[in-house]
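This section describes the prediction task in plain terms. A model, or a person checking by hand, is given the sequence of a single protein chain and must write out its three-dimensional structure as a string of tokens. No templates, partner chains or ligands are provided. The sample shown here is typical of the held-out split.
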Amino acid sequence: MSKIRILLADDHEVVRSGLASMLGEYEDMQVIHEVASGEQAYQQYSEMEPDVLVIDMTMPGIGGLEAVRRICGRYGDARVIMFSMHENVTLAMQAMSAGAMGYLSKSGDSREIVLAIRQVLSGKSYLSADMAQKIALQSVSGNEDPTQRLTAREFEVFRLLAEGLSLSNVAKQLNLESKTVANYQTILKNKLGFSTSAEMVRLAIKYGVISSH
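The expected answer:
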């Protein structure tokens, strides 16, 4: 029986090794490589073309969301699961719109990731039950989150600026021109309705894009 070849991307070695040893207990799974950044995830995905990529949302460098956007943009049939410590509807929706087929919270049951891997491999998307419920509740309540209207690239620029990075640092991290990032900042101001950095940070905290501590 051929094994499911899995690439793991997480900047915490403890998380990676724990996940790798847990997945290694299943006869149909094999972790073929582990990486610690979005850039490495993109590079190794291109070289190894794994069956499934399990990737953390927040990592140094381009980050999980941008890595997923690049990978799914280049490989239309990529099977990607976002594995995040953020139980957040906005981030889950952004991950899915960037191309991820699954979104799991790190605080969930470890066996859930096995279920998710098998499900995305068969071409179906996977959301943990609590996340699916949160998304359903939000759409029913009609409390619209304006950050969900952002493209994956706009969202990543928003997140990095809200975390306090300068325009030039955001540009360096996302491999863009500073002028392009400044243009994105203008688009964000128009779409989200903030005018100062403090308002932008408040918005980002309100919608769980960054944490308040």
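For orientation: The chain has a mean pLDDT of 88.
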